[in-house]
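Q: Please design a sequence for this.
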């Protein structure tokens, strides 16, 4: 099955090519790896006012799974700024 790995960091980016994978579990693992790599490359993105998400969809655009990463500071820290 072909899986499409779309992401959003305030702006949505659609995967136009997708990746042929053997099963849903492999797609879950690939989505986790993709999110981890993106966070390594852009570690401040979740502190810039938006969350980061990876949505995996099928060829028809049906969303099969979503990973959402959100940074939340405790109120005690926010009060110090």
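A: Design:
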């Amino acid at each position: 099955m072909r899986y499409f790995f779309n992401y959003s960091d305030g702006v949505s980016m659609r995967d136009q090519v997708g990746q042929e994978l053997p099963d849903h579990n492999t797609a879950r693992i690939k989505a986790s790896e993709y999110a981890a790599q993106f966070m390594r490359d852009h570690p401040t993105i979740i502190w810039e006012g938006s969350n980061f998400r990876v949505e995996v969809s099928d060829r028809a655009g049906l969303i099969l799974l979503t990973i959402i990463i959100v940074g939340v500071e405790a109120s005690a820290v926010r009060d110090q700024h």
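Q: Thanks. Anything notable?
A: Strands lie at 2-8, 12-13, 19-20, 52-57, 63-69. The helical segments are 24-41, 75-78.
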